[in-house]
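Researcher: We're teaching a course module on how sequence relates to structure. For the next exercise, students receive a sequence and then see the predicted structure as tokens, so they can try to spot secondary structure elements on their own. Here is the exercise chain.
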Amino acid sequence: MHPPLIDIGVNLTHASFRADRAAVLKRAQASGVQHIVVTGTTLAHSQQALRLAQAHPGLLTCTAGVHPHHARDWNADWLDGLRELAQHQPVVAIGECGLDFNRDFSPRPAQEACFTAQLELACELGLPVFLHERDAHTRFVEILAAYRPRLRRGVVHCFTGEAAALRAYLDLDLHIGITGWICDERRGRHLRELVRHIPLERLMLETDAPFLTPRDMRPAPRNRRNEPAFLPHVAVAVAQSLGQPVAHVAAATTATAQAFFARNNQAG
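Model: And here is the predicted structure for the students to work with:
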């Protein structure tokens, strides 16, 4: 058994987990996942994520934020709500926040306003940011660069981009989250080379469950739903890409995640 893993991004408030959430958590622990960061994507889901974390101290912490898909609904009350949530110890980052110009579920000006407000909040509170970027790299970097000197830390969650994007994020001293996308022989092959350029002290692992089920899992999971128990599969793929023992990668990424999300560590 490799050292314990930390899954830095699980959408545990998603409806697909409603019927068997307790069993999902048990399977995660049985597979060696010692800790899960539950992703907040709206004010309501962030509130639910906090309740889950409070119900499972030690196993769960959470983020509080508004995903760009929901930016059209952003308002001052949501900002106040996120600020209140962030006073609670289980909330370890602001987000998931950022830009998504692929789906454009919210108008781009609304996405930018929602993103900058959350960056301001993270600066104000001294919390890291949990970041989302899809097909919006140039504008995302422009906005983020202006805030980076005041931001404590940031992780680009679910990185699937190209080499230039990775270089830009590392140049901004950001952390990188790698998911089961690296297991996709069609779309994720390039990540197997790019991951070698991510220092282990900047690399973290995540499932983004229930999404992004590793395509090469055999047998395929029932209902194709991803869950945190599958994080060791991602860890093996990353270790193979790095040419390093999975135990080393597991220990390093766990240590990186612990340092990144530690609320009592204000450095960095």
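Model: If you want an answer key for the exercise: The chain has a mean pLDDT of 95. The beta strands are 5-10, 33-38, 60-64, 91-100, 129-134, 154-156, 175-178, 203-205.
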